[in-house]
Amino acid sequence: MSDSTTAPASPVVLEAWFDLQCPDCFRALDDVHALREKYGDRLDVQLRHFPLAKHKHAYAAAQAAEEAVEQGKGWPYVAALLARTAELGERGEPVLIEIAGELGLDAEEFDTALIDGRHLLTVDADEAEGKAIKVTGTPTYVIDGERLDGGQSQDGLRGRIEEIADRLLGA
Q: How confident is the model at residue 9 (pLDDT cuts 50, 70, 90)?
């Protein structure tokens, strides 16, 4: 997702590769929130899409998240969607539209965006880049060129991210 949490001129970028139907990515939001709180605008957290084949609605969810960015609520949409991964798995795309409406977004435009595929290239580009840097599961983080795989275990990842960010920020 091209929407970032801070100004584009932030000195340190943390890419968070997420599948928006992944329960582990929902748990990873706690780390993202803690990192934002600790570093503020010195850390630019960028969500990148890596929909996994095992989650049949993840690709549509990534497109919906991009539409949320267009409508100005990228991160709030992602957080609301990740909180409902089980429901997304059971009910599919209607959940994407419902969340948009609940957040006051133009749900009709979400439906149109999913039909016309206007965000396909963005999602495809993220997925291709993820494969190129050997992302295999989600969540996966990249900071200062180092890939940190949270797909197996998230234990210690926030600490490792903080070590790298502190070094880069001279803290």
A: low
pLDDT in tens, 95-133: 999 999 999 999 999 999 999 999 999 999 999 999 999
Q: Is 64 exposed, middle or buried (0-12, 13-18, 19+ CB in 10 A)?
A: buried
- Closest-CA residue to 79 (of 122, 130, 32): 32
